[in-house]
Amino acid sequence: MHSVKLVPCELTTEPIVTGSSVLGVQCADGVVLACDTLASYGSLARFQRVTRFHQPAAGVVIAGGGEYSDLQQLFRITDNVYRQEFCHEDGWELTPRALHQYLSRLLYARRSRLDPLYNTVAVAGKGRFLGMVDMYGTAIETNLVATGIGTLLALPLLRKRWHEGLTMDDGLACLEDCLRVLYYRDCRALRTIQVAKVSDSGETFISEPYDLGNLQWKVAHAVTEKLMI
Q: Which residues form the signal peptide (predicted)?
């Protein structure tokens, strides 16, 4: 008889292929999310046309940074949740706030089992809902969202420019400016970005990837000349 070798279950111990910051802003007429399309293999800019947005149902969009395979698993889980809700046929639907709380409990449960999903996720939905959940299950509902290094570099800029009457077009321009700063400063960022808009009524739009324009490198040249002196 052949002996059967039992292979122990191996869990993810560290992120390998990762996405960087996700930014979001709550506007007077909806919510806007934005992030780049890069998935880095360590320090290598390996996959440059990946999407980190997902629309599991009408009127709700999620986006995440961190380990990309874990993010794909989160997308599959949310699809399954909405599929189960649809099969009940009771007229109820999962709201963006309910999904936000579900992801909080899910990520907390995975962390407690020492099998975390290495992601920080932003949730945008109809009714101008905007929230964020980190890999430990910590959930916040806020009018400005930034994950990763964007918390340090982009969030102060968002706070400076945000106001109650901000429209989605103005919010998008603000997020693009912040992504330019991240492209300048974050070595895991890319100039190719994607944006998602969810209106107050639930109309959803996810753009095709496009390149940031109006990039300025004059400051970099000035720094280089100063270092050479």
A: none
